[in-house]
Write a structure and sequence with these properties.
cell membrane; 201 residues; transmembrane helix; globular; transmembrane; membrane
């Protein structure tokens, strides 16, 4: 049994290195943590995990072949992902300071929005393709192994992405003036928009 699960150790190291580094998800979690707090950002975090779980399992079961057979699907996903990222970048950059939001302005990303974004997130695709190609056991039940590996990957990812949301929450406590908030949100919006370069290059 232990020998059969030996692949989980290297897979954990891989997922830690991929999910703790900057990317569209982590930039948006930082902005959300600062603007809405850690607990209101939780659906966003869970949506990332749920979306990646579904994507990774789908890749293991043949979804990755879609890109090879139909290149137009990859192009379409890139364009959709870029457009959605630019929309989110604008929402982040134009968000008012939290004290103004108490009157009903703005809300964090929902579970389903965050989950759906993973299918247009190039970093999530790269992670999933490399994870399943490199660590999915060749023997045994493919479906069971794919679900186990995908679930384990998201278990490892949870504290990594939570760190970014917590980092944003800590920054939010340091921002005391509306001007500081505007500058922070503009910077986070610009960083989110810059992620489009990763998609279109």
């Amino acid at each position: 049994m232990l020998e059969g699960l030996a692949f989980l150790g290297p897979a954990a190291l891989y997922m830690m290195s991929m999910t703790i580094t900057p990317g569209p998800n982590n930039v948006m979690l930082t902005a959300s943590g600062a603007n809405y707090g850690f607990w209101r950002t939780m659906p966003h975090m869970l949506g990332i995990l749920g979306g990646c779980f579904a994507l990774f399992a789908g890749i293991a079961l043949g979804l990755g072949l879609l890109f090879e057979r139909y290149p137009m699907v990859q192009t379409t996903l890139r364009l959709v992902g870029s457009a959605y990222l630019l929309y989110l970048a604008w929402k982040i950059a134009s968000a008012p300071p939290p004290d103004l939001r108490l009157r009903g302005e703005g809300r964090p990303l929902t579970f389903w929005q965050a989950a759906a974004f993973q299918f247009a997130n190039p970093k999530a695709w790269v992670m999933g393709l490399a994870l399943m190609a490199g660590f999915l056991p060749q023997g045994g039940d493919t479906l069971l192994n794919a679900l186990l590996l995908a679930a384990f990957a998201e278990l490892v990812a949870l504290p990594c992405i939570a760190l970014w949301a917590g980092f944003g929450t800590a920054i939010g406590r340091l921002l005391k003036t509306p001007r500081a908030w505007r500058l922070f949100n503009l910077a986070m919006g610009a960083m989110t928009a810059a992620c489009v370069i990763l998609i279109l290059r």
